[in-house]
Amino acid sequence: MLEVKINNTMGRKLVGLFSLVILALVGLAIRITWINVNDGKQYERIVLNQNQQQYESRTIPFKRGDIRDRNGTILATSDKVYNLILDCHVVNTEFKDEDGNIVNSYVDPTVSTLVELFGLDEGEIRGLLSDEKTMDSPYVVLVENMSIFQKQKFEAYTDTSSEENEGLTDAEKKRRKNIKGVWFEEDYLRVYPMNSLACDIIGFSDSDNQANYGIEGYYCDTLNGTNGRQYGYFNDDADVEQTIIDPVAGKNVISTIDVNIQQIIRSAMEKFIQKYSNGPRGEKAAENIGIIVMDPDTGEILGMDSSQWYDLNNPRLYTKEEFQQMPDEQYEQIKDELPEMWKNFCVSDSFEPGSTFKPITVAAAMEMAAADNRDSYYCDGIEQIKNATLHCIAYPGEHGTMNLESALKVSCNDTLMQVGARLGVAGILKYQELFNFGMKTGIDLPGENSGVLHTEEGMGEVELATTSFGQGFTCTMIQEAAAFSAVVNGGYYYKPHVVSAITDSSGAVTEHVDSVVERQVVSTAVSNQVREWLGEVMEPGGSGETANVPGYSLGGKTGTAQKVDPDTKAYGDDYVVSFIGCAPLEKPEVVVYVVVDTPNAEDQGSSIYAQEITREIFIELLPYLNIFSGDPAATEAYIAQLKAAEQSDGAQQADGAEQAEAAEQSNAAQQAVPETADSEALAVPES
């Protein structure tokens, strides 16, 4: 066996070599420790941002549920978008080059790419990277709500291994690899495809998925889901791993409204606004206009609108920055305008309903056996009750002998005051409560008003008389619509509602919102009788004749109520006029209620303004609902007559505008003549 002998010289060499290895390892350990202490976070962030991925803990937003109409049309949805994020700390990372110089390889490639791909301002980006407030920030939002196509464009540009980028030079590939600190944060943008249509019912949500108005507000918790989370960490092998908790999408809300009916409502309202704008009382056609279309047998709202429109995609009109920079005087002037614009006139504003309340008074009196159509009343045009003089619509004339049927037809206040006296204070208050006046209906919309009624102690003879024909107390449109529906549907009061079902993200129904019958307020016999009389209101000589469409079987009631002057607290010269009707009369399938607050006319005290809108709605709505005319020829002839009259009015307005323009030119020319000049010698345009 060969023996190897190690002499002293060789032993010393081995010990020296071993010592050098130990010293090298110690030096390496010290270097790693130094790097970890001083630059560990820096390198960790660089690793975490490779390939533009954000591996730190972050929120994954949920998708807010859709709002749809009864036919499935999308009214509100959430589109996935991306926020472009700049990690200034990573972009500003500095290294030592081979010569020991401090260099930055990321700033120029990153900035130039953001400018090239997204058109951002180079100065602004460099300002963010150099500003002490943002230079170390890991989260600076450069652009909000970018599309998936913009994100993919960036990813394709920075993927140096793709076939598309095969032809790049090594220098360009190196430059693109140094694009760091840019990533895309997922988010959702609430979108309203119909813009302002049905804005009162839909409402809008903020960027934080909170809402206060419309279905968005009332069903906010239902529409909202639960955010997910993504956790990034290093495992024992120093590899990046992720734990992802998926977000839970919000549920969808299926509304009772019909987009087509909403468009019919909007069209009729726009037509009225065009006709009555710039009238004797200013630019606005009315202070406000409200319309409700309702199914009287279910309480479902098929359509609802008011003239305070706003774009749901841009409801605020002003940005936060504009508000902050706005002068105090301007801010004080407009700060209350937006909430006023966003509220729903049909559920939030209360007013005196006027004669649309008369069917409730008559139905209550018949139900209590306090009055009967065989009873007769005499209208002399005026009632003197204590110190109050109350006029009938016929004043200074009179209606003469009346019964309940004829009183409803011509809207006789005098007769209704006598009927109210028979009902008495207790009786009329009882039926106001049964028909849900003075209380919220419970409709599934925020901001509902309850109105104000007289108390039993506060209702004297005068208050009883005015209440009988719809003045002296206030209600909302939704209260009146629900109450009238109970009068004509057989006597059943349905709770009004705007949502019919809730579905999950896959479309499966998770909850049905059923119609609720709260009570029977009058007998079916009384309902049938009053409804028959409401049909006569639409006949020639009836107060609702203007709203009638020949060939159809309709019923309805007009309303005219004086408004209280806020300064004098007494009735002034302004009016709220209205019309409420149903079709078909024999078995109503739809109720239409129109209110015009302060129409732009010299004489406001006529319900004809509301009737015009109602007629326009009926003409389009009834065929859409498959409610057919009994005399199509008569209906077509009437519609043709209306169109001819509109064309004639339009031509007259055009002629009037030309004459007014010529007169204006003439006046301007005459005013331009010097006082000392001989005007007869000057050429003046003929007016």
**Overall average pLDDT:** 87
Q: What oligomeric state best describes the polypeptide chains here?
A: single chain
Query: What is the β-strand count?
Result: 25
* Poorly predicted regions: 45-55, 656-687
Radius of gyration: 38 Å
Q: Helix segment count?
A: 22
- Structural class determined from secondary elements: alpha+beta
Distance between the termini: 138 Å
Shape: elongated
Proportion of strand residues: 15-25%
Helix content: 25-40%
Q: Please give the largest β-sheet.
A: 7 strands, mixed
Describe the structure.
It is a single chain. Helix content is 39%, strand content 20%. Strands 2, 3, 6, 7, 10, 20 and 21 form a seven-stranded mixed β-sheet that branches. It has a five-stranded antiparallel β-sheet with strand order 12-11-25-24-23, with helices on both faces. Strands 1-8-9 form a three-stranded antiparallel β-sheet, with no helix packed on it. The protein contains 22 helices and 25 strands. Strand 20 (499-503) and strand 21 (509-512) form a beta hairpin. The termini are far apart. The longest helix is centred in the first third of the chain and has 41 residues, at 8-48. By secondary structure, the protein is α+β, with helices and mostly antiparallel strands.
